Amino acid sequence: MNSRISPYQEKTVTLLNEAQVEQLKEITTHLRQVRQEKSIRIEEIASQTLIRAGILQALEEERFEELPEPIFVQGFIRRYGDALGLDGNALSHALISNVVHQDSNNDHNDHKDSDNKPNTYIPLVVTYILLLVAASAGLLYILNPPQITSESLTPKVNGQQSMVTNQ
């Protein structure tokens, strides 16, 4: 048994609370009992589910620190249960509902903290509309420049327009 825990494994252990660990223990104990009753070797389950035998052994021996994140464990439990002829979805749902419930509580607490801050932001739609109006006005000006008439080009002398003639 490896006594060193990598930072990744340490993070995985902290992702599960006590209730989740207890739920996972119950599920893996049940899976191990069913596998043993049916006299199926763990290697057979590994080849059928495409889950490494080491992961399955870690599940059965409750070495949860060696497992990846809970979402992956959910998939392992579902496939393991299906391979044993059990309802793998129900087993994995029992674990993930506990994980999701815990995560949603954490998210709810995070939202409480963020609600105390003033909510002063400009929606992205307003920015896009202003940008579109400015671009349209610029394009309109470029495509339709102000008309310059010959009257505006003739100089005025004493308040009257002078006549410019070509000779």
List keywords for this structure.
2% strand, disordered N terminus, 167 residues
* Order of strands, widest sheet: 1-2
The SSE string, one letter per element, is: HHHHHHHHEE
| Average pLDDT score | 75
Percent helix, as a range, is 55-70%
Uncertain stretches: 1-13, 100-104
The class by helix and strand makeup works out as mainly alpha
- How many separate helices? 8
Major beta-sheet overview: 2 strands, antiparallel
Shape: rod-shaped
Per DSSP, what share of the residues sits in E-state strands of 2 or more residues?
under 5%
Gap between N and C termini: 108 Å
- Tell me the total number of β-strands: 2
Rg measurement, Å: 36 Å
How would you describe this protein?
It is rod-shaped and about 115 Å long. It contains eight helices and two strands; from the N terminus they run ααααααααββ. The protein has helices at about 5-15, 20-35, 40-50, 55-60, 70-85, 90-115, 125-145, 150-155, and strands at about 155, 160. A two-stranded antiparallel sheet has the order 1-2. It is about 65% helix and about 0% strand. By secondary structure, the chain is mainly alpha-helical.
Task: Chart the SSEs and their pairings.
Elements: H1 7-15, H2 18-37, H3 42-49, H4 53-60, H5 70-83, H6 88-115, H7 124-143, H8 150-153, E1 156-157, E2 160-161
Antiparallel strand pairs: 1-2
Helix pairs in contact: 2-6, 3-5, 5-6
